[in-house]
Specification:
Structural class: alpha+beta
Number of helices: 11
Strand order of the largest sheet: 5-4-8-7-6
Largest sheet: 5 strands, antiparallel
Strand content: 25-35%
Shape: elongated
Order of helices and strands: HEEEHHHEEHHHEEEHEEHHH
Distance between the termini: 32 Å
Number of strands: 10
Helix content: 40-55%
Amino acid sequence: QGEESDKQVLQFVKQKLDAREPVKFEIINYRKNGEKYWLDIDIQPVFNNDGSLKYFIAIEIDITERKNAEHLLKDNFTLIQNANNRFQMAVKAGGFGVWEYDITTKEIVTDDKVFEILKSKRVSKEDAYKFWKKNVHPKDLDRVISNLINTIKTGEPFDELYTWTTPSGEEIILNSAGIAVRNNHNTVTKLIGIMSDVTVKEKTQVLIKESEERLANIIEGTNAGTWTWYIDTGATYFNERWASMLGYSLEELQPISIENWKKLTHPADVLKVEDLLALHFSGQREYHECQLRM
């Protein structure tokens, strides 16, 4: 993290992790070269059969493009019209379609990219809303409409994932995000937003989660001791098997930290481990592996 990383979000995440609860959040992060980017992070706890915490699994998705597009939409409608050419180029480069929903007439105006994403022939703006409702999957329709209504009432941004059935019967996953546009009387009259096909990303997340679950099963099946060290925060997580290999319970070793780990490690081996870690961090070693006495 860095100076623009939301401290309140980080505090909230810490509270959730301390309570051993799942947490999903978005935050600004920084690369080694100082470049900032947005992450969508989903952290899930994994528990033993007796209910004790084994470790956390985290899935991180780079959402910088989506956030950049949302920031573009936060400009007022007049500015978007005046800068339409540049905006369209940015949206096209990101693979987004642009839509505008008139709350009074229920007409939806879109660019051609929207219907390309929907894998459908273009329909008129008068029929677009009925067409949209007809093809949103029934399991998602009530939720999405409810959140649309909430955006109209409160002016809060709209950001939804939902399944769409194409005219050919194929099911794809869409992400629609938008903002409310108010008139001179501060009444929300329109919604302007972007749409993208996130089927591959969402299915990849499912595969990643399944892969993580398989890995967890393998770790459990092989009775391996595991540890996780977050370099930037110093937070560490060890499983019960790791503690038992040293003749302790995990509870006896609390609070676990890198400093406690050093105290349990032979002094001569601490220096060796630090040297090997430095080689790994510098990219001279592809992965970290060492033998040590504890």
